[in-house]
Amino acid sequence: MPHDFSTTTAGPQRVSATRSHAAVGDNRLPGSQPHRFVLAHHPASWEYTDHGFLPKVTRHWLRPGCNGVTKGANGHQRYLSRLRGAGWIILDDDMPVPITAPDGTAATAEGYMFRYEGQTGPHYADAWSAPSIVGAGRGRRVDWSATYDRGGYDAWRVTLRDNGIVPPPTAGTLAELCKMQSHKANRRIAEAHDGNPHVQASVRNHQDKLKAMRAAATQAANPPQKPQKARKATTTGGG
Amino acid sequence: MTVLHSSMETDLRLAVALDQNLLVQLTDTATIRNSGAISYLGTTNGTGSDTSRLRLAGLSGADPFVATAAENTSVAATALSDSSVDIAVVRAALRRDIGDVATATGFATDIDTAVLAADMVASYESYFNSLVCTAIASASGSVGTSGSDMQHGDFADAIYRLELASVPGPYFAILHPRQYADWQESLRGEGGALQFHAATAEQLAISGPGMAGTFLGVQIMKLSDVTTDGTDRLGAMFGAGCLGYKVAIIDQRSYLGSGAAVAVRVDEVMVEIKRSPETATTVIVGNAWCGVGLIEDDRICGIVTDA
């Protein structure tokens, strides 16, 4: 009787293969962005949006070789302590942040820093960024801005302002912002008088925004500090 | 039967022949290191640390004289203001391996050990550009509207801020090509003093990567390494002395006993070439040690506009 070899030992497993060397279903992002970051707010950095004055948040890359950051797990600590010394408010990367879910509903993400896999390393991005790949072949690149969750980002900044995580802007900061906006409004006012309707519309938009900024500034400024008791001074000395 | 090229392709002709010219793929080849925008601050050699602390003191008229109340008034001491900033030097490297057959079968001008070694400098400049662009992203003050294209008004606002802070010139601007293109669009519609300015026409002309000319006294650099925060590009305008860099120069003590390795110093890059007979390849490695830092935040204004 012939020997049945079918149950003796398990043979090598066969898996399907193709002649293509390309990884099937490789959804890794082109390139990489391998540097972590922290988000921080400087007290003098504000901007006016549809939600009123919102704090600007700056992304500080924790990249070795840049701004005193060294290699190693704690290579960024000295840089962060310098930022704090310069008045920056470092925002914890594990704080819950509002985002917009894919179905359009409001949701919460645990932290603002996320990581994607890239073909040459990780990509670190914030909670409101959604990468989309543009192009093909060697020209493939990642577009982070087209699908940015601006609503969620602004909602987070509203919570920073309203919950007191960042101090309110000073009257001087708001006055400076209004002044910059008035420059925008006045810069092309002579052209507007020439009758160009596009320039007139642009100037009008800037002026409307300036009006709204001034109205919001009177509400947003922190209460004035208790003034010093002024002492009378004269031209002949004293005071 | 007529002898045609197509009939000879099987044995006597090539279906496709490689052209002798070796062209370079589209890459941002700009370099900012030698533009004067970034101050060279020396080396960390012999300092005892890979991190240098730059010291800034409030001198040169930061504290002016004050008239005394009377001829015999006792004057109180005025404290000297000071600050410091760190620049850490770190290693960056690139390695290429090339096989013997790849070298031997090359054309007269082709990719070989020498070409790969010489190209290390360009790769270092690209890395340096990215360091600078990362450093400028940390500016505390900025102009521009998040999510909106860059306008000429943003450019003018940046000049205004720097002048208000009495930042000495020359001024430099580092913009992403997207920011620069948006600004060009805005310039096309500008009237008034800029409409017939020669520099306006110059900026509207095409320019390659890197230095894009001077406008209103500001030297403009286009760099694709300008970072993004997801929605905006983080360019900047800054005055002289705002950014600096330090390097470490690796000396011959590191190469004692290196045997067959050939070390070639090209400016701040050390290129080493080593033979690997076991794999019939030649290894070319470029090493550089540098660090870039934002020296004074008051000398810079971020330009944050739509990506």
What attributes does this structure have?
heterodimer; A: 239 residues; alpha+beta; 3-stranded antiparallel β-sheet; two-stranded antiparallel ribbon; 5 helices; 19% strand; elongated; B: 307 residues; 6-stranded mixed β-sheet; 21% helix; flat
Protein architecture, described:
The complex is a heterodimer of chains A (239) and B (307). The longest helix of chain A has 24 residues, at 197-220. Chain A contains five helices and eleven strands. Chain A is of the alpha+beta class. The N and C termini of chain A lie far apart (122 Å). Chain A is elongated and about 125 Å long. Chain A has a three-stranded antiparallel beta sheet with strand order 4-1-5. Chain A has a two-stranded antiparallel sheet with strand order 2-3. In chain A, strands 6-7 form a two-stranded antiparallel ribbon. Chain B has 307 residues and is of the alpha+beta class. Chain B is 21% helix and 31% strand. The longest helix of chain B has 24 residues, at 113-136. The mean pLDDT of chain B is 84. At the A-B interface, strand 4, helix 1 and helix 3 of A face strand 3, helix 3, strand 5, helix 4 and strand 13 of B.
Whole-angstrom Rg of chain B: 26 Å
* Residue windows where pLDDT falls under 50 for at least 5 positions of chain B: none
Please give the alpha-carbon distance between the first and last residues of chain B. Answer: 63 Å
Biggest interface found:
A-B, 47 and 48 residues
* Quaternary organization: heterodimer
Count of helical stretches of chain A: 5
The helix/strand order of chain A is EEEEHEEEEEEEHHHH
Shape of chain B from CA axes? flat
pLDDT averaged residue by residue of chain B: 84
Order of helices and strands of chain B: HEEEEHHEHEHHEEEEEEEE
| Percentage of residues in DSSP E strands of chain B | 25-35%
Going by helix content, strand content and strand pairing, the class of chain B is alpha+beta
**In DSSP terms, counting alpha (H) and pi (I) runs of 4 or more, how many helices of chain B?**
6
SS content category of chain A? alpha+beta
Give the end-to-end Cα distance of chain A, rounded to a whole number of Å. 122 Å
Major β-sheet profile of chain B: 6 strands, mixed
Q: Proportion of β residues of chain A?
A: 15-25%
Overall helicity of chain B = 10-25%
Q: Spans of chain A of 5+ residues with little confidence (pLDDT < 50)?
A: none
How many strands of chain B?
Answer: 14
